[in-house]
Hints:
CATH superfamily of the domain at 160-253 and 571-575: PDZ domain
Number of strands: 36
Strand content: 25-35%
Oligomer: single chain
Helix content: 25-40%
Amino acid sequence: MSAIPGFILILVGFGFLIFIHELGHFLAAxxxxxxxxxxxIGMGPCVASYRxxxxxxxxxxxxxxxxxxxxxxxxxxxTQREALGLGETEYSLRIxxxxxxxxxxxxxxxxxxxxxxxxxxxxxxxIFRRGVVILAGIAANLALAIVLFLVAFLxxxxxxxxxxxxxxxxxxxxxxxxxxAGAPEGIRAGDRVVAIxxxxxxxxxxxxxxxxxxxxxxxxxLTVERGGKEFAYEVLPARDESIGLLSxxxxxxxxxxxxxxxxxxxxxxxxxxxxxPSIREAGVGAGWHVESVDGRLVGSFADLAEAARQSxxxxxxxxxxxxxxxxxxxxxxxxxxxTGATAVTVIEPRPEFExxxxxxxxxxxxxxxxxxPLSRVRALVETSxxxxxxxxxxxxxxxxxxxxxRRAELVxxxxxxxxxRIPALVLRDGREVAVELRTNSDGRIGVELELATDLPLLxxxxxxxxxxxxxxxxxxxRDTPAKALAPLPLGExxxxxxxxxxxxxxxxxxxxxxxxxxxxxxxxxxxxxxxDPSPEAAPVETTVALExxxxxxxxxxxxxxxxxxxxxxxxxxxxxxxxxxLRAIVMGFRQTVRMVEQIFLTLDRVGRGSxxxxxxxxxxxxxxxxxQVADEGFMYVLFFLALISVNLAVVNALPIPIADGGxxxxxxxxxxxxxxxxxxxxxxxxxxxIALVAGVFLLTFYNDIAxxxxx
Length: 711
């Protein structure tokens, strides 16, 4: 219900864009002296209309004219119509708000045979005048986009700053090739992107779009600022299957404020409650900001992450500031003030584990010298097909015929079986439970997974891994200590050098301590006690050597902030003309041209396959996205409508029969050949155009519904 005002705002805005498009056609028709019999906003049955001589009526004014005079005004000559006191145009509102049209005498998009010999018919106008009428709708949408961009830039619009907040392990960005002699390899968290392929980078959206729109197999040049110096890099985007687009594997820099957007507010609060219950119990949630950690002021999530890294696992004291509220509205331990509530909480940093890429795999997994904990159901998503089958806390003991699957193995097992059923065995409240999992069309079971590091149980170990390699070279492969241990699936960790180990996290702490206490890179021998799944089995101790690479990896392990970076607001930059109208005009025009280029580029990438058709949105998706945008503020709405206005212009400019671009192609043919295409050809082209538009509509409608409600 809270989304309804935003939905109505976007719906009205979308209708306004269509109104402007049709108004362009209408005014051009008036200029060309072409008789415009109808001006409609929306499609389908008529809700209300107006025609001079009849007035405002519910339903169609033409129906009233037929009852009074026996025929529609369009069937009358101008002299006959004026003699009856009827206006030239019926202005109507249709039931479906997504569309609109101008009905001109002798011109119907879906019926090329509907010609007229009247001197004011569309076909009797010169080719130049008809061309102006056809292109006027496109021009009107482009002009409107420039105006909307201009207004938005005069006030200023916030966007995520072009700063790197995180770089995925073994991602294209992490392997980026430095173009400057002596520069370190790889893009790093904290880098500010200043240029992309030689063009200034203004927002983080520019970075993502540059990767998504790159030609398959071609690199993108990035210039980044780091420590007051600029470095040039070359990075090859790779397809990210989770989003269906090319990506370089970077995330935007984040602030220290928990996101408070309506669409994600509940999710943010749920994550805080799960990952840091004491914080949620203190009344802290969406919209709250971390002011300080252990007495040190905080300006970004990077500061929180750094405090966690330096903590060595010791608890952190956080001072939070909430959104401005009225006195007496605070809850928990929060105290109110004139600028919002405050709360002081204590939070424990989360220990980090190694990110190892199995030989033959392509995704890093959290592990420890090759040992991996079991995967556990952290939560079921709202649209999960396995509600009532799985429960929070279930441990995966088997998936299909694979015992003790690692998280990546579990994900692959279900993704390989879309719309299927997979037998599985889970451990629930100390007992084994056989279940049958259902997968959706995307090959997902609808759960959030976490590693059970608080238990000693082991999943399949990683025997060999790929070590990171410089860009352009193949990664080296090496064995992990776990290969020598050869633990059985579902085995248990029992001890390290004779000291009892209660869980995976305890093993991590002890191994890190030994690695840091060990001098140099000489191999370090440790004895690990394991037990196979049999309850009566005795632990078996095995001595393994931790080589230099293992020691370096263990020593590098620290602690991370327990709340995920993704639930914090991005660090923003404001695109603004600083109140200068001339600058705003230039920015608006430049943004419009840029969007036109971007849309054609997207169509090209769809054709090349680097952008999947599942990324395309239709009217439903646009309205849904717009409703979310509306929650960000009115300037975002203006900017969003400007983007859609450009899209309408470009789509109408495409040479598709029944679209403006297709009609313009017919005019070019008529100019070159001296006659229009045959009616038979135009009919066939119109049917093909209708079929194409209907197919695209159905495809995008399916995409929109699947994206909104879950596949």
